[in-house]
Structures are given as C-alpha cells and as structure tokens.
Design brief:
Helices cover 26% and strands 25% of the residues. By secondary structure, it is an alpha/beta fold. The structure holds benzoic acid and fe (iii) ion (FE).
Length: 284
C-alpha cells in the first residue's frame, strides 16, 4: 500500500486492526484514527507543528508523578473531562448534578460530628454551611455521608503546602437528612500553571482561574454517589471556569453577617458567612 494524503491512507490504517478481538477497542481506535487523520488534513499540519505537538505531549508526561497528573489537567482545560462526565452521569431532573473531581482529593478524611470546624485553623473568613441530603422526591436521607474538601481563604489546598492538613472532613446527616459544618469561605484560585498546560493556557490567551467552590462527594447506602461542587454565587469566574465545571444548579448564595450568634448556636466573635445547599441523590 502506497502512503498518500487521501482517504486511502486512513483506510489502510483502519484495515490493520479490523480483526482486533475486542469490538469496543476496535470502535474506539477506528474513531480515533479517523478523527486524528481528519484533524491533520483539516489543519494541513506542518512538520514543525507536528514536532511541537510531540514535544508538548512528552513534556506533559514528564510533568506527571504520584501527586501531579498533567494529562488530567489537559483533559480538564480542553473540556474533555466535563464531556466524559456529562456522558457518564446523565441524571434525572431534580438530581444533584456532577462536576469535575480535580486533583486535590485525599481519601480517608476524619468523620466529624455535626457543626465541626473543618478549617483546622487555616486562613480565611469563617463560613457556616448547612443543608440536607434528600432523594429526588424530596425525602430526607438520614446517615448520608458528605466528604468535603476546599481551599483556604488564600486559594490553596492543604496538599499544595508542605505538611499541612486543613479544610477537609466527612460529615454524616442526622435523622432528618441535615448536615452542617464550619469552614472558611472558599475563594477563586488558579489551577497549576507551572507545566505545559499552563503554557498552553497562556498561548490561548486564557486565565487559569476556577470560581470559588467547595468539593463534595455525597453518598448513602442504596443511592448513586455524586461527585460535585457548591459554587459561590457572584464569583467573577463563574462564566469562565478554566475547567468548564460550572453548572447553574450548583451555584448558591453565600451571605455575609456581622459578628454574633452563628448557625451552630455559638457566638462568633468576627463577621462570618453562611450558605445552604440541598443535595438530591438518585436510587441505585
Ligand atoms: C479543582 O477544583 O480542585 C480542580 C479541578 C480541575 C483541575 C484543577 C483543580
Ligand atoms: Fe477545587
């Protein structure tokens, strides 16, 4: 077979794995080859551009280690992660929507009683978040777990700082499906830009910011777990999230209050914020 720039080259490559045993693998690889060839034809890629792409992908791999996953960041910033999320988590109306997982989750957070302070002394303005976990018919789910993580008030996750542990914890809903915890108000923050993805964002003329949010994995026996965020209404980056993770249903008001009695019934000596959110889970 003589190589050409036309369809015959694409067909020749496709023919090489038409007998591959796994039908799904065949389908995925066929689509990949067709789209890759279409992309190269569409852009009339130069050899210099082809090599720049090879260098970029090499640098992306070299940036990965047990803490940093630059390929996932690439997927996030190109909207691929949210597309995969949308395809795999089609929820009925009324169910809490999913969004990106992100790289800053740690398994094994401590289980804490209602109204615990998860901030562990980190920087930021006090914030009390409470709400309920319900089923899609509005019935409370007692004993649901909320695994929470977020930045401090300076926009850092604890895992980005040496030997730090803050702003994460596991809460359990009470008999009426209620939860509550004290934390700090999350702020918008840049995703890591010290790698090839940061360079790519710069070349695209894009900023690296995510709007302020609290991450939550909400789960309960007999229900589908949901990996999601609660976003802060009014954040300037809600319309331009670097990873396309915002969904309107996940945005809620954070209200400022002067010093006084906080939602946990205790006095708070400085001004604070409050937010409420209801999570709705779908039966398994
Ligand atoms: C995050 O929200 O933690 C996050 C998500 C995607 C990329 C980087 C950070
Ligand atoms: Fe985050």
């Amino acid at each position: 077979m003589t190589a050409s720039t036309g369809q015959s080259l694409t067909d020749a490559v496709l023919a090489t794995f038409r007998d591959a045993g796994d039908a799904r693998f065949r389908q995925i690889m066929s689509s990949l080859v067709r789209h890759l060839h279409g992309f190269v034809r569409d852009t009339e890629l130069t050899e210099a551009e082809w090599f720049a792409a090879i260098r970029f992908l090499t640098a992306t791999g070299q940036k990965c280690d047990d803490k940093r996953q630059e390929y996932i960041l690439l997927s996030d910033t190109l909207g691929v992660s949210m597309l995969v999320d949308a395809i795999n988590h089609r929820k009925p109306g009324g169910a809490t929507e999913t969004t990106v997982f992100g790289p800053f989750y740690l398994p094994g957070s401590a289980s804490l009683p209602m109204w615990s302070d998860i901030a562990n002394g980190c920087a930021g303005e006090p914030c009390y978040i409470n709400g309920r976990v319900l089923d899609v018919n509005g019935r409370p789910i007692p004993g649901a777990t909320l695994d929470i993580w977020q930045t401090d008030g300076d926009g850092w996750y604890d895992v980005q700082k040496p030997d730090a542990a803050f702003a994460r914890g596991k809460l359990t809903t009470d008999g009426e499906g209620r939860f509550g915890f004290r934390t700090v108000k999350p702020v918008s923050y840049p995703i890591p830009t010290d790698g090839p993805v940061g360079e790519m964002l710069g070349a695209m003329g894009r900023h690296p910011y995510r709007p302020a949010h609290v991450h939550a994995i909400v789960s309960a026996p007999g229900y589908q777990a949901v990996t999601t965020h609660v976003f802060v209404a009014g954040d300037p980056y809600l319309g331009s999230d670097a990873v396309f993770g915002v969904k309107d249903s996940l945005v809620t008001a954070f209200t400022a209050h002067p010093a006084g009695t906080a939602p946990d019934g205790k006095p708070c000596a400085v001004s604070f914020h409050t937010a409420q959110y209801e999570f709705r889970l779908v039966k398994e």
